[in-house]
Design goal:
The structure is a single chain. With about 350 residues, this protein is α/β, with parallel strands linked by helices. It has a single domain, classed as TIM Barrel. Helices cover about 35% and strands about 15% of the residues. Strand 9 and strand 10 form a beta hairpin. Helix 3 packs parallel to helix 4, helix 5 packs across helix 6 and helix 8 packs parallel to helix 10. The longest helix has 19 residues. It is globular. The N and C termini lie far apart (about 55 Å). About 45% of the residues are buried.
Length: about 350
């Protein structure tokens, strides 16, 4: 085998013993989990905003951003439920580039997986402790989920992972909402099959154990646009797309039909300022059709302190080193406007 096995990493139980949750953090996590479940099940009509940086690249800026969200959450608490994106793994189409804090706690240093595991656990805990907001992360690696499964309140399965069986089976054993993105090629049947698999119980191998899942009734769709065979981005957030998703949900007995619309990625053509316009159109679709309103439970927004993106090493505080993001001033305005439109 052409691989070098450098060291045996601590298992999740050991890491949790080294870095345990405080009672206050556990309470805040459970509060957010309960609120999200109520929204997904239709018992709470607030709109969820899963909002934050494309990737959580440095703890100080992420905490600063989350603290700003916490302040505005209090202003919009009757209309919106804000869930910070603390995305610690970054999928790379070609395998090149920054792969997230899990791999590189310091983006300018070499990868250090154990330091990364500790760093992402501590950062998630600090965000919850200092803001009271429960967080979202992407499950890029199903076998790593256990390192932070006691902290997360929302989990996303990305467009490149949604067809993978291990992601689907692991999602079936998760107790928080799991969003299944449509694949990069746009075939919605792939996403719907993933939701079906995640909502049912399974027996499978997980981290060397024979595991039995109970099914996740909160697994749901994330529409993120798609790329055609010529490499051209196409959106799938329009009214007709939402009506098609309603039709697909109606064809089988899904539990808690729900959708979160990703405003960036192929829906915006990775033009982050377009997220404001896209959000407004989706809210108009919700206002026009009560079925669409019940379907669209949330929006996913890539937002940071500064507009745009930068290269690693430029050192601009609060500016993305991966995909471009919407800056804080525009994000704050969007949040307040959305609260008025719910």
């Amino acid at each position: 085998m052409n691989m070098l096995f450098e060291r045996k990493l601590a298992i999740p139980m050991e890491v949790k013993e080294m870095y345990p949750l405080t009672a206050g953090v556990s309470d805040a996590v459970e509060k957010t989990r309960s609120a999200l479940a109520a929204v997904m099940e239709g018992r709470d009509d607030r709109l969820v905003l899963i909002i934050g940086p494309c990737s959580a690249d440095r703890e100080d800026a992420v905490l600063d951003y989350a603290s700003r969200l916490a302040e505005i959450q209090e202003k919009v608490k009757d209309k919106l439920l804000l869930v910070p994106r603390v995305y610690t793994n970054k999928p790379r189409t070609t395998g090149e580039g920054y792969m997230g804090m899990l791999h590189q706690p310091d983006p300018e240093a070499k990868p250090d997986m154990f330091k990364g595991i500790v760093s992402i656990r501590q950062m998630h805990m600090r965000v919850v402790k200092e803001t009271g907001l429960g967080c979202a992360d992407e499950m890029l690696y199903p076998e790593n989920y256990k390192y932070i499964d006691d902290i997360l309140c929302y989990v996303a399965v990305g467009a490149r992972s949604v067809e993978d069986q291990q992601h689907r089976l692991t999602a079936s054993g998760i107790e928080v909402p799991v969003g299944m993105k449509n694949p990069t090629g746009g075939d919605l049947s792939v996403m719907m099959n993933a939701i079906t698999a995640a909502q049912h119980p399974h027996t499978f191998i997980y981290r060397g154990w024979e595991a039995h899942s109970q099914g996740n009734p909160l697994a749901h769709a994330i529409l993120r646009g798609y790329v055609d065979k010529r490499g051209v981005s196409h959106p799938n957030y329009h009214y007709e797309d939402l009506m098609l998703l309603l039709q697909l949900y109606a064809e089988k007995s899904y539990m808690n039909p729900a959708c979160v619309v990703d405003l960036n990625h192929s829906n915006s053509g990775k033009k982050p300022l377009e997220q404001v316009r896209i959000a407004r159109e989706i809210m108009q679709s919700r206002a026009y059709n009560s079925d669409v309103r019940r379907l669209v439970k949330g929006l996913m927004i890539e937002s940071y302190i500064e507009d745009g993106a930068q290269k690693i090493g430029e050192g601009i505080y609060g500016k993305s080193i991966t995909d471009p993001c919407l800056g804080w001033e525009k994000s704050e305005r969007l949040i307040l406007d959305l609260a008025d439109m719910v």
